[in-house]
């Protein structure tokens, strides 16, 4: 082999990583080198050297692998320890409250002590137009976590089932603070919008259904600025609420509207209101329904416009009115009806049995509350109806064919008689009335009225009277079982030429003691006693003996003078009065 080739081989050897200098440190090494130079082209010593270098690289690789495994193992162990820890990760906050490295009990205590419980339980009060308000629950809105959820979320951060994730989360927590409330925030637009809808509904209700109202007594017109125009930008409204919730605020005022308001047409309103006064009046159908008065009214349009412009949306705008009152108002006309006690009568039934008491109560209830307009006629038999068991009446003692026996509806005559006496005190016109065959024990002779509707036909006896006054009357029946009394009151309107009663007297000796005093309806008028009395004449005929009476209605002034004395009995065709006839009961 030439030297050139040998050098070439040596160069190749050097190229393969083993230079001369490396192998000249000892004779043995030099010998190896020379052998390599003089060897045939099939020289393999460099390959042997390569294998030696590869073994060193594998060792390093193994070392790296072991190190990586150690790191991974340490990480896994650390992640496991983090996962199993009962404490929160470091640098964990709930809002501004530090809860890092605290367990659940300590976290709850920290939240309570530093006001988180108060914050989450205090709603945001949102005040809008007209002072209307509604509340937003911060927890339901998703702006804050409840105390329980905050405790759970604080510990859940970095404590998942994935220990590797927990390790990286731990490292992240070491680097910077974490607000669990912000991380967990899940705003509920749907809930907040429902609260806004509630608030808008309250505003609309507050704004009312009328553009304006007139209070004639206060002489002012009231309108609410923005009536029928109020619109909110719900998205902007919601954003304001969310911002307030995130700041932990408890009150928010929001009055921003989606569009500007336009002023009312005050000229048109002025035309609607401006007119002359008109008196209230009763309907002409005899039912005395009241049509209210119309007040004369006007206002200063320029002043109204200024007051409206100066007001804020939703404000009440009160505009002064010039009022001209009519002479008669609707309240005055309504107040005239049924305001005065025209007459009353009370009878007693202390010894009556349960059946008779039941009949008294039933018949009275059918009359109580009746309204009679001028000219109306009352018929007892029509109002109370047939006294039958089907109608609820029971058998009780009654006068039948000149004798006392049980009859269905017994006691009905005490109701008609009590009412009749009340009509006499009220100066009402008697249309039809008959006295009993025998004197009754609950009122004096001449003031009773018998009634009957015989079963199967026969002559009916009715009690009828007419409202002969100029105003409606109201019949009031009062049954008092506990005190064993039956009372009828007749309410109506005392006119200027009526005698104002202060006493109703139908007493007679010690037997009939009805004598009722009332307060004067009008203190500036003279008061009178209305007294029912009778003159009695004994008689005897083929049937038996008894009494005939004439009943007098007297009006007595405060000095005891009789200013009116009139007989209430009906007149015969010859002009004489028909006397009431009572036979003595044997």
DSSP strand tally? 28
Q: Which structural class do the helices and strands define?
A: alpha+beta
SS strand fraction: 15-25%
Low-confidence stretches: 1-10, 12-26
Q: Biggest sheet, open or closed, and with what strands and sense?
A: 6 strands, mixed
Tell me, rounded to a whole number, the average pLDDT.
Answer: 87
Tally of DSSP helical segments = 16
Which overall shape is indicated by the principal axes computed on the Cα atoms?
Answer: elongated
Percentage of residues in helical conformation = 25-40%
The first-to-last residue Cα distance is 183 Å
- The radius of gyration over CA amounts to 55 Å
Task: Explain what you see.
The chain has 16 helices and 28 strands. The chain is elongated, with a radius of gyration of 55 Å. It has a domain at 337-583. Mean pLDDT is 87; it is low at 1-10 and 12-26. Helices cover 34% and strands 23% of the residues. Strands 23, 24, 25, 26, 27 and 28 form a six-stranded mixed β-sheet that branches. It has a four-stranded antiparallel β-sheet with strand order 14-22-21-15. Strand 9 (281-282) and strand 10 (290-291) form a beta hairpin. Helix 9 (189-207) crosses helix 10. It starts with a helix and ends with a strand. The protein is of the alpha+beta class.
């Amino acid at each position: 082999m030439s030297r050139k080739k040998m050098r070439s081989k040596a160069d190749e050897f050097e190229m393969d990583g083993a230079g001369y200098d490396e192998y000249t440190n000892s004779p043995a090494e030099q010998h190896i080198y020379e052998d390599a130079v003089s060897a045939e082209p099939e020289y393999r010593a460099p390959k042997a050297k390569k294998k030696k270098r590869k073994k060193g690289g594998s060792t390093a690789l193994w070392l790296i692998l072991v190190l990586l495994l150690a790191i991974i193992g340490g990480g896994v162990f650390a992640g496991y320890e983090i996962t199993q820890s009962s404490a929160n990760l470091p640098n964990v906050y709930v809002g501004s409250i530090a809860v890092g490295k605290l367990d659940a009990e300590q976290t709850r205590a920290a939240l309570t002590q530093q006001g988180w419980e108060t914050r989450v339980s205090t709603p945001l009060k949102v005040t809008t137009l007209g002072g209307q308000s509604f509340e937003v629950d911060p927890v339901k809105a998703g702006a804050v976590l409840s105390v329980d959820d905050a405790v759970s979320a604080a510990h859940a951060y970095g404590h998942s089932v994935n220990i590797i994730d927990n390790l990286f989360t731990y490292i992240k927590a070491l680097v910077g603070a974490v607000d669990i409330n912000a991380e967990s925030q899940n705003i509920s637009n749907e809930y907040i919008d429902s609260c806004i809808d509630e608030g808008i509904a309250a505003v609309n209700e507050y704004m009312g259904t009328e553009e304006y109202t007139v209070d004639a007594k206060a002489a002012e017109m009231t309108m609410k600025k923005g009536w029928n125009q109020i619109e909110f930008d719900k998205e902007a409204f919601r954003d304001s609420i969310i911002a307030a919730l995130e700041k932990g605020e408890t009150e928010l005022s929001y009055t921003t509207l989606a569009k500007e308001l336009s002023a009312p047409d005050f000229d048109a309103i002025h035309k609607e209101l401006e007119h002359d006064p008109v008196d209230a009046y009763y309907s002409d159908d005899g039912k005395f329904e009241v049509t209210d008065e119309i007040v004369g009214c006007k206002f200063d349009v320029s002043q109204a416009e200024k007051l409206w412009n100066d007001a804020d949306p939703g404000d009440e705008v009160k505009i002064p009115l010039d009022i001209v009152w009519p002479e008669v108002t609707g309240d005055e006309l309504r107040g005239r009806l049924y305001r005065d006690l025209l007459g009353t009568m009370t009878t007693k039934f202390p010894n009556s049995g349960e059946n008779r008491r039941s009949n008294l109560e039933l018949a009275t209830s059918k009359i109580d509350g009746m309204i009679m307009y001028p000219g109306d006629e009352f018929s007892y038999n029509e109002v109370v109806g047939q006294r039958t068991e089907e109608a609820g009446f029971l058998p009780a003692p009654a006068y039948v064919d000149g004798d006392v026996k049980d009859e269905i509806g017994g006691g009905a005559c005490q109701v008609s008689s009590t009412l009749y006496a009340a009509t006499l005190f009220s100066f009402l016109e008697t249309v039809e009335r008959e006295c009993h065959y025998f004197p009754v024990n609950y009122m004096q002779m001449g003031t009773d009225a018998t009634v009957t509707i015989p079963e199967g036909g026969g002559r009916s006896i009715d009690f009828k009277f007419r409202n002969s006054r100029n105003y409606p009357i109201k019949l009031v029946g009062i049954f008092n079982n506990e005190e064993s009394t039956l009372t009828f009151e007749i309410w109506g309107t005392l006119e200027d030429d009526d005698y104002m009663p202060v006493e109703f007297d139908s007493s007679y000796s010690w037997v009939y003691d009805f004598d009722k005093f009332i307060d004067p309806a009008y203190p500036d008028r003279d008061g009178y006693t209305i007294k029912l009395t009778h003159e009695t004449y004994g008689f005897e005929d083929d049937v038996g003996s008894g009494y005939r009476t004439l009943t007098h209605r007297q009006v007595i002034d405060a000095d005891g003078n009789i200013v009116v004395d009139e007989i209430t009995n009906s007149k015969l065709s010859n002009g004489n009065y028909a006397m009431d006839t009572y036979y003595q009961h044997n």
